[in-house]
């Protein structure tokens, strides 16, 4: 067990060193994954889920739907509990993942904030 702990300590140390020489702000999704300690499996599940939502978004958009709030709710509900939906959307948007879907989610959130700030 000591050898495994040593490997984990080394890996953690190496990641810390790399994060100091790389501008992690250029890679917000990777930064999010590291900061919230997502596993490869959790990352793959998240990306598969977003891919499915993106396909649903494209289909609904093609069919003329204008309100995609249900997709945002689905995203937030299915997102790994380690992640904040707003931060995740912003990171995905900044890094260029699913740009139309993330822009739509951001618009929905901005509209919601605007409506509820007035009250």
UniProtKB/TrEMBL annotation:
SUPFAM superfamilies: Hypothetical protein YhaI. It comes from the Bacteria. This is DUF1878 family protein.
């Amino acid at each position: 067990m000591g050898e495994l702990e040593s490997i984990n300590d080394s890996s953690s140390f190496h990641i810390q060193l790399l994060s100091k020489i790389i501008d992690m702000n250029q890679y917000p999704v990777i930064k999010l994954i590291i900061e919230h300690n997502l596993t490869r499996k959790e990352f793959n599940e998240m990306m598969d889920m977003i891919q499915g939502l993106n396909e649903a978004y494209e289909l609904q958009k093609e069919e003329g739907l204008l309100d995609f709030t249900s997709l945002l709710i689905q995203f937030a509900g299915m997102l790994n509990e380690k992640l904040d939906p707003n931060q995740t959307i912003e990171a995905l948007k900044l890094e260029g993942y699913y740009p139309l879907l993330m822009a739509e989610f951001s618009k929905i959130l901005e509209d919601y904030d605007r409506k509820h700030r007035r009250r």
